[in-house]
Amino acid sequence: MSCFPKNKGYYISLFLVLIVGIVLALSASYDKSLQFFIIVMITVFYVLFGILHHHLHHDNSPKVVVEYVLVGSLGMALVLLVLKGGFI
Amino acid sequence: MMDQLHHIFLPRPSNNYRAKILHHSVLLSFLILVLSITVTLPTWVQSFPQILGTSVDITSQKLLDATNKKRAEKGLSPLKMNTELAKAASEKANYMFSKNFWAHNAPDGTTPWVFIKATGYEYTYAGENLARGFTSTDDVVKAWMESPTHRENMLSGNYEDIGFAIEQGTLNGEDTILVVEMLGNKSLPVAQNRPLIQQAFAGQVGSGSGNIIGAITSQPLLTNSVSLKDTTLFILIVFILTLFIDMIVIERKKVVRLISHNLDHILFLSLIGAFIWILQRGHIL
Fold first, then answer.
1. Where are the domains of chain A?
2. What pLDDT tens digit does each residue of chain B (285 aa) get?
3. Which residues pair with B167 in a beta bridge?
4. What ipTM was assigned to the predicted interfaces of this complex?
5. Do A71 and B268 touch, CB atoms closer than 8 A?
6. Which residue of A has its CA nearest to B102?
7. Do the Cβ atoms of A77 and B224 come within 8 Å?
8. Sign of the C-alpha dihedral computed for residues B65, B71, B77 and B79 taken in this order
9. What's the CA gap between B24 and B4, in Å, rounded?
10. In this predicted model, what pLDDT tens digit does every residue of A29-65 receive, in sequence order?
11. CB distance A68–B177 less than 8 Å?
12. Who is most buried in A84, B93, B189, B244, counting CB within 10 A?
C-alpha cells in the first residue's frame, strides 16, 4: 500500500485507462467479439504498462513479467469463459 | 487443515512469503483449467442438455400476459393475440437469422412493415419491438419497459393486436434467442387517425437456421449462465482478497520481494470482475 503515494500518477493513469476500456467494452454489448477485443486491448495495456513501470523503477525481472502475463491472461480467460459459455 | 489454508492464502516462510495461490504454477494451472472449460463447454452443453445448459422460459402467452398487465396498470385496454402479426414476427425473425442482421430495417432496405403486409394484415398503425439474448419473459418485458421508445409502443392506445415470435438460432456465429414483437391496429379509420408507423425496435440480428416457435422453455439441472458468472466472480474475489491480504501482511512484516505490484493486479481483476458482473444478458432494439 505504501507504494501508492509514491506511484500515485501511475495508479491513477492505470485506473483511468482500465475504466475507460471497461466502459467501452460494456457499451459494445451488441457485439461480443468486439467486447472481447476491447478486453484483450485493456489486458495488453495493463501488462505493458506494468512492465514499463517496473522497468523505469529498475526492479523489473522475468518473474515480474511472467506474473503480469499470467494475471492478465487469467482475467482475459475468465471474460472469454463468460462471453462464450454464459449466454445462449 | 488450517495450516494448509494458511499456506495457500497467506504469505509465510513455507510459501516463500507469497500465498501459494499466487505462485506462477498455480496461476498457470487456473489459466489452463479456465481455457479448457471454455473450449469444451459447448460440447458438454450439447451432449448433456438436460443437465447443463441455459435456463430459458419465454412464451408468447407470458409475453402477452405481462404486456397486458402493464397496460392494465395504465388503464389501457388489453391487446389481443393476432396470428397474422405472429406470422409476420416469425418471418422477421427468420429473415434476421438468414440475412445475419440485427435491426429493424434489413441491410437490403426491407422494413418490418413488409412482413406485416405480406400476411394480409392491413394496418393503420404498426410497431415492432425486438429483443435478443434474454432467457426469461420478465427480463424481456422489463428491458422494453425501461426503454422510452419500447415502452411507448407497449403502452400505446393506438394498438389493438399483438403477435410474438421467439426464435432460437445463430447470429454472427453466436447461438441466441430472438424475440420479435409486432403490434398493430387495423380497425381505426385512416381518415380519423393518420396512418402512422410507430417504429420501436429492440433486438439483434444474425445468420442462422432458426426454429420459429411461440415459446422456448428449457430448465437444465445446472444453468451455465448463472453458474459461470457466479463461479468466475467467486474466483476473482478469491484472488483479489488474497492479493490484498498478501499486500497488507508483507507491508507490515517489511518483507522484501522482487515481484509485481499487488495493487496493479487488484485494480485489473476488480475491473474485470465489474465487467463480468455488469454484463447484460440481452439487448433490445
1. 34-88
2. 788 888 889 888 888 888 999 999 999 999 999 999 888 887 777 777 666 666 678 899 999 999 999 999 999 999 999 999 999 999 999 999 999 888 899 999 999 999 999 999 988 889 999 998 887 898 899 889 988 889 999 999 889 999 999 988 888 767 788 999 999 998 755 444 433 444 444 333 222 333 334 566 655 555 555 567 888 899 999 999 999 999 888 888 877 766 778 899 999 999 999 999 888 666 677
3. B178, B212
4. 0.92
5. yes
6. A30
7. no
8. negative
9. 18
10. 777 888 999 999 999 999 999 999 988 888 888 989 9
11. no
12. B93
Question: What is the DSSP pairing of strand B56-59 with strand B215-218?
Answer: antiparallel
Q: A14 and B264: CB-CB below 8 Å?
A: yes
The cell 442462422 sits on which residue? B208
Q: Enter the C-alpha cell of residue A26.
A: 460494456
Q: Cell 447443463 identifies what position?
A: B52
Instruction: Copy the grid coordinates of residue B207.
Output: 445468420
Long-range contacts from A36-41, C-beta under 8 angstroms, 24+ separation: A36/A79, A36/A80, A36/A83, A39/A75, A39/A76, A39/A79, A39/B272, A39/B275, A40/A76
What are B235-239's contacts with CB under 8 Å, separation 24+? B235/A78, B235/B30, B236/A75, B236/A78, B236/B269, B236/B270, B236/B272, B236/B273, B236/B276, B237/B273, B238/B21, B239/A74, B239/B21, B239/B22, B239/B265, B239/B269
Of A26, A50, A64, the CB nearest to B275: A26
> B-chain residues within 8 Å CB-CB of A79?
272, 275-276
Helix (H) / strand (E) containing B252: helix B224-253
Q: What is the DSSP letter of B214?
A: S
Residues 59-98 of B with CB under 8 A from A: none
Q: Which residue has the cell 506462477?
A: B24
Chain B CA closest to residue A76: B272
Cβ of A79 and B263 within 8 Å? no
Interatomic CA distance for residues B29 and B55, integer angstroms: 30
Distance from the B32 Cα atom to the nearest Cα atom in chain A, whole angstroms: 9
Q: What is the value of pTM for the model shown?
A: 0.68
Cβ-Cβ contacts under 8 Å, A56 against chain B: none
Q: What DSSP character marks residue B200?
A: -
